[in-house]
């Protein structure tokens, strides 16, 4: 079950995402602000990162370094992104032992399996989930 989430407009024109348990995130259109599509890309990268964390730590150790970069292809005619690309880089140079080529291949395979099994953001984007909207005007 997911947390109850909502967004509220702030006096300065930015928006704040909130949850029942106190999480907060400010976003908007201005300089230094993430916009909603970027937040979706961050969600995808974050899901990938968390899905692969165990495999990476198990193979390299908890001090491992990794980066997930997400880019997208925007279709102006459709007003939507037609594709997202993720590039995952894992720095295994700090591992207790130098990984063999076989261990590198095995880690890459485990990471891909974890992503394909556990990344719900990826699953949701790929399934094109319908969105239902209800508008209420208080007057």
TrEMBL record:
This is OsmC-like protein. Gene3D superfamilies: 3.30.300.20. Signal peptide: none annotated. Pfam families: OsmC.
């Amino acid at each position: 079950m997911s947390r109850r989430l909502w967004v509220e407009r702030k006096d300065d024109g930015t928006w704040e995402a909130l949850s029942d348990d106190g999480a907060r995130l400010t976003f908007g259109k201005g300089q230094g602000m993430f916009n909603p599509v970027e937040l979706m890309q961050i969600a995808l990268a974050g899901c990938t990162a968390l899905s692969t964390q165990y495999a990476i730590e198990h193979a390299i150790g908890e001090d491992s370094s990794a980066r997930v970069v997400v880019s997208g292809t925007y279709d102006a005619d459709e007003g939507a992104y037609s594709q997202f690309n993720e590039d995952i880089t894992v720095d295994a140079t700090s591992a207790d032992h130098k990984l063999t080529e076989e261990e590198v291949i095995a880690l890459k395979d485990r990471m891909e399996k974890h992503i394909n099994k556990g990344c719900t953001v990826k699953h949701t984007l790929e399934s094109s989930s319908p969105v239902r909207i209800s508008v209420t005007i208080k007057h």
